[in-house]
Amino acid sequence: MNTKPTFKKITPTFGSSVIAVHKTKKRKRSEAFWHFHPEVEMVYVNKGKGRRHIGNHLSYFNNSQLILIGSNLPHNGFTDRLTSKGKETLIQFHPDFLGQSINNLPELKNILQLLERAKHGILFKPEIKSVVGPKIEKLPKYEGIKRITKLLEILELLALTNDYILLNENGYVLETQPQDTDKIDKVYKYVNKNFQEHITLDQISDHVNMTVPAFCRYFKKITNKTFTQFVNEYRVFYATKLLTESQSSITDICFECGFNNFSHFNKVFNDVVGKPASKYRSEIKAMIQ
Questions:
Q1: CA distance 187 to 183
Q2: What pLDDT is stored for residue 176 in this prediction?
């Protein structure tokens, strides 16, 4: 399994801005890789079990689940097994699939707030899940404007409920804005490929054809953080994956993630995840056992 959070390009079918598909078979292991994308993702499993790895959150579900994952939040494949008549319904759409005017429509205020919360990952509880789940399952059969209106109805229901929990309430989100997506995608891909090495500001600025001062201003404006913060937090996400799935020592994981100082790794990990790496690993082991 790919352990790096890989940028994934999502392409809807021609003439559609919303992907809505059913999956009735267990996902191949090669397809269940850790990835992120600007599109919002809604996953509803009516009967099955599996593991959730969303940002720095890891947990298991048994029977059914409904989750909403916001833009650029790293996540993995979810369903380990579908039971009899089990089905996973996957919905994907870009946050501005209705165009930039969506930000100016008061009627969509609740949905915009929902999409903002989704950047932390939302797990919906049984009451709302029982209401919205069947509606999600019907969405793939609709086409054109009907699919858009039905999706908006679903989002409005999810926006108005309090029957949910945030999976990464204090966690980090790989956040970017819709504008300049080609340039920021180039930055993401470069970091994904090189984060285990030292990346200088000269290197990344040159990669996107900008001067260092211009790049620093641009990146801070788009992500609301410095490039160094972004790279370190990206490395921490990789560390959570290794702490969960490998037997390597925490010291080895520190250096494999691109940190060259163990105390600095511990400080950054604690700042991002909210707990030391050793405690994170012990809690994960206790959860699995």
A1: 7
A2: 44
